[in-house]
Specification:
Layout lengths: L3 H4 L11 E2 L10 E4 L3 H4 L11 E8 L3 E4 L6 E8 L1 E6 L2 E6 L3 E5 L19 E7 L5 E8 L1 H7 L12 E3 L1 H9 L14 E4 L16 E7 L4 E6 L4 E7 L11 E6 L12 E4 L5 E4 L4 E6 L5 E7 L1 H6 L6 E2 H10 L54
Antiparallel strand pairs: 1-18, 2-3, 3-10, 4-9, 5-8, 5-10, 6-7, 6-9, 8-11, 12-13, 13-20, 14-19, 14-21, 15-18, 15-20, 16-17, 16-19
């Protein structure tokens, strides 16, 4: 029995800011590369965040790679590079660069596609057809087995959602179809799409646990700070040309707090690299900046399905938070369905274009979620 005030906030290891470079998957043999932070998290099983494990999959041309989990409710695969297919208990998924597909726990009623001498349940066999640049396909693989390991639990055999494929070309087209101006005529600070499943009608998330967004940052643009309670495992899909002919860099600033002027307190700078992953700790304010000549793209994968279900995700944007700080008050962890009671929130039109981060550039104000509809579901041969 522990005295309450001394133990209500126990000292725990923090989720670290960490960068995993693209070099982990651009060369070498076919393999799984776990992005394992279990030592930093003081866990006795692989994990990149308390509830998630991310990995790079490197598959040489014309080669196969088997991946599997003992117990996980959700598996997500984003194709960084190349084309090929994946055989699952639910059928074959054909993919190319930019596609994303997700799998639920599929049970044992249908035959496994992999020889089970690796101890892999829910096994998936991936095949790389072609990849001319680096001689091997690369996938970004995230699942929630660490959550199940922590709980000492396993999924029930009932599928919580259906296997789904989100074609990359359709996702890009959908983002480009979002108008640059919002309903007030102001320039949108963010253009992106949440990947949603009809099997998660309330949370509108990728799976009951996983949340993902395909986010674009135009050349020369800044996206004002925001924060949320879930860990983000951010894949830099494209870093604006990687300092090509136009020069410049794409980077994220991260910090624990926000000044009343809207700038991040003592920010850390994380430079993007196409095909690399960086970890954004929970609750940290972060802003994205594109000084390169081309649009940059990022695909965060989060355990925010859980937080949304619990009503604790608590995404906050700079303009609203700075206005509250200036007026001397702080809202709780949840908000009403409308933001009419938010004091002094500024729109994009009221924020000076091109201002530096410390000057409160860009809009961070809340807008109603964009409904883009179902992209594609059940495309398993």
């Amino acid at each position: 029995m522990l005295e309450y005030t001394a133990n209500a906030n126990p000292a725990m290891s923090e989720v670290p800011v960490r960068i995993f470079p693209a070099a982990l998957h651009t060369s070498g043999p076919t393999r799984v590369v776990p992005l394992d932070l279990s030592d930093a998290l003081q866990l006795d099983y692989p994990a990149t965040a308390p509830n998630l494990l991310a990995s790079f999959l490197r598959i040489d041309e014309s080669d196969n790679l088997e991946t599997g989990v003992t117990h996980a409710t959700s598996q997500s695969f984003y194709v960084i590079r190349g084309s090929g297919y994946s055989d699952t208990r639910a059928g074959r998924v054909e993919w190319q660069a930019g596609d994303l597909f997700v799998l639920p726990y599929l049970g044992d009623s249908s035959p496994s596609v992999c020889v089970d001498d690796h101890g892999l349940n829910q096994c998936v066999r991936h095949h790389c057809n072609s990849e001319p640049t680096h001689g091997g396909c690369a996938l970004y693989y995230v699942h929630d087995e660490p959550l199940l390991r922590y709980l000492g639990a396993r999924p029930v055999d009932t599928r919580r959602f259906q296997p789904a494929l989100y074609p990359g070309a359709t996702m890009i087209e959908t983002v480009h179809g979002i108008t640059r101006l919002d309903e007030t005529g102001a320039v949108r600070n963010r253009r992106g799409i949440l990947l949603s499943s009809p099997d998660s009608p309330q949370t509108k998330t990728l799976t009951p646990t996983l949340w993902s967004l395909l986010n674009s940052i135009d050349a020369g643009a800044d996206q004002a700070p925001h924060r949320h309670n879930s860990v983000a495992l951010d894949l830099a899909v494209s870093s604006g040309g990687d300092g090509g002919s136009g020069g410049g860099e794409v980077y994220t600033l991260l910090g624990r707090g926000l000044h009343a002027n809207g700038s991040i307190v003592e920010p850390l700078k994380v430079e993007w690299e196409s095909g690399g992953v960086f970890v954004t700790p929970p609750g940290w304010w972060h802003s994205h900046h594109n000084d390169a000549a081309e649009t940059a793209w990022v695909l965060p994968m989060q355990d925010a399905g859980l937080y949304t279900h619990q009503r604790t995700l608590d995404i906050r944007f700079q303009a609203e938070e700075a206005a509250r700080l200036k007026e001397g008050w702080h809202r709780g962890a949840t908000q009403s369905a409308t933001t009419a009671d938010s004091p002094g929130a500024k729109s994009d039109a009221e924020s000076p274009a091109g201002a530096e981060l410390g000057g409160g550039a860009g809009a961070g104000d809340f807008v109603e979620p964009l409904v883009v509809g179902t992209l594609m579901f059940g495309h398993l041969a």
